[in-house]
Amino acid sequence: MKKPIIEVKNYSFAYENTDKKVLDSVSFTINEGDFVGIIGRNKAGKSTLCESLVGLLPFTMGGSWDGEIVIDGKSLNETKGAGVTDIIGIVFQDAESQFTQETVEDEIAFAMCNFGYSRELMRERILYASEACGLRNMLDRSPFKLSGGQQQRLAIACILALQPKVIILDESTSQLDPIGRDEVFGLITKLHAAGSTVIMVDHNIEKIAEYVNKVLVLHDGKVIEFDDAGKVFQKKDKLNAHDVRVPQVTDAALQLKDKLGFKEAPITLEQAKSVFAGYKKEGK
Amino acid sequence: MRECIIETQDLVHTYPTGVTALKGVNLKIYKNDKISIVGQNGSGKTTIVRHFNGLLKPTSGRVLLFGEDTTKQKIGQMARKVGYVFQNPNHQIFCTTVRDELEAAPKNFGFSEEETKKAVDEVVELMNIQSVLNTHPLTLDYTTKKIVSIASVLAYKPDVLILDEPTGGLDEPGRVMLTKIIDMMIENGHTIIMISHDMDYVAENSDRIIVMCQGEVVDDGSPEKIFLNAEVLRKAQIEPPQITQLDLYLENGYPKEAILSVSDFIKKYINFLGGQREWE
């Protein structure tokens, strides 16, 4: 039995001075070791949800809320959003805007300094995080002179140094070129394989389908779907009605369902190759 | 024969750091072209388009904009003809309300108050941003900022619209809106030059793709041709859309034309697949 690490119980949230529920009675559970993709159109509540999971909302940035979020057994209502920074960390879309230091090394050390880590421990963690993120030979570089992919990896390194159990990436690849994007996906896949729980918000449906095992679809602050990726992407009409598309190969397979005859439409290119190839031979 | 509006002749650009970003590029862009420039970071995409409106000057060679050398034209005149939407909206936005941001360019280009109002009203309607007109643009979320940055250039309807990574951070409705805008511009005789890594979008929204690699143009042609050139794609590190790749695989790498969208794929395969076999 997997151990729950994030439990969201009937959670609603509205920003300060507004009545609109950006999140509306959201409930779901993420288990340790899950790799969850959160998808949905803009303003669906994806970032609000991510910021709520780390306690930034409502406790630091304000707003009204209802319900409860429990992180690794700690209720954020009880801790007032505090006490989870070493359990759950978040990487934002715009990594550059979060940097404050003159070198990569200082940037990675920054959060640890604030938490009062010992010098030895910081040294050890800087080496660990920079190694994991492929930044070991860039420690004395300026964060502002790195490429986009390197900057995102640095933002991840800053979080990794605290060794959280859960890492959230909020559209961390949307501004990267394919090489930078693959760098980040590659790193995240390694971290997931090593046991981390990963939550990823991304508009690149094909990549989400390829990497995650569970998909959560948000729309207007409500959870529309939360299930295995393979199951969620079968529901093309429902997703389309909520401004979310399915991977191209899934779309094609579902449209040719009568010709192909499968139990579950493929959601990755590799799956699609085997589904289509077998049939093409027959057809020719 | 269509009018050639931008021409580069042996264009070389070396930055003050000593990096040569363009190594002798010869390119002709025609009126009403719908072009995507693709290639990995550092291939010279942004450097070349910044020559089209005189933001950068050639180290050697020439750039002709509507037949005239860009070094002999005023930046303001060129900006009026060639609008440039930056990749990062934070680098472009400078006013304190969205309305001011949208009015800035038309006013600068000497639009009357009435013309400015009409131009702004039009893009506001088109891009559905009524609700944020009095907001400080830098407080908006990234996507809305991106939409505002596109709208602020669209407002003065430049002959040529350059879009640097326009789909970054856009969701599905955002992409649909962008497509609508591009199609409308093309229909009205404008020229679109898009820089993008988003191959799904490029495949469905370009008539011509220019592939750049290490400061040179390595391929130039229709998307149906470009996505078949495996060697160039590998060299330029470009990954065709998923559906294009599936078709390539099913054709053992040699279709006549690359498939660019799911609907093209369906048309091609609907009468092609057997569908007789039992699922194993």
Provide tags for this entry.
heterodimer, A: 284 residues, alpha/beta, Rossmann fold, 3 domains, six-stranded mixed sheet, B: 280 residues, four-stranded antiparallel sheet, 10 strands
Would you summarize the structure shown here?
Chain A: It is found in: Cell membrane. With 284 residues, chain A is α/β, with parallel strands linked by helices.
Structural notes for this entry:
The complex is a heterodimer of chains A (284) and B (280). With 284 residues, chain A is α/β, with parallel strands linked by helices. Chain A has three domains: 1-87 and 165-239, P-loop containing nucleotide triphosphate hydrolases (Rossmann fold), CATH 3.40.50.300; 102-163, no CATH class; 247-284, no CATH class. Chain A contains 13 helices and ten strands. Chain A has helices spanning 46-53, 56-60, 76-79, 104-114, 119-132, 148-160, 178-193, 205-211, 229-232, 236-241, 248-255, 257-260, 269-283; strands spanning 4-14, 23-31, 35-39, 64-71, 74-75, 88-91, 166-170, 197-201, 214-219, 222-228. In chain A, strands 6-7-8-3-9-10 form a six-stranded mixed β-sheet, sandwiched between helices. Chain A has a four-stranded antiparallel β-sheet with strand order 2-1-4-5. The longest helix of chain A is centred in the middle third of the chain and has 16 residues, at 178-193. Chain A is globular and about 65 Å long. Chain B is an alpha/beta fold and 280 residues long. Chain B has a single domain (4-240), classed as P-loop containing nucleotide triphosphate hydrolases (Rossmann fold, 3-Layer(aba) Sandwich). Chain B is 37% helix and 22% strand. Chain B is built from eleven helices and ten strands. Chain B has helices spanning 45-52, 75-81, 98-108, 113-127, 142-154, 172-187, 199-204, 223-226, 230-235, 242-250, 262-269; strands spanning 4-14, 20-30, 34-38, 60-65, 68-69, 82-85, 160-164, 191-195, 208-213, 216-221. In chain B, the strands form two sheets. Chain B has a six-stranded mixed β-sheet, with helices on both faces. Chain B is globular and about 60 Å long. Chain B starts with a strand and ends in an 11-residue tail after the last helix. Chains A and B meet through α7, α11, α12 and α13 of A and α5, α6, α10 and α11 of B.
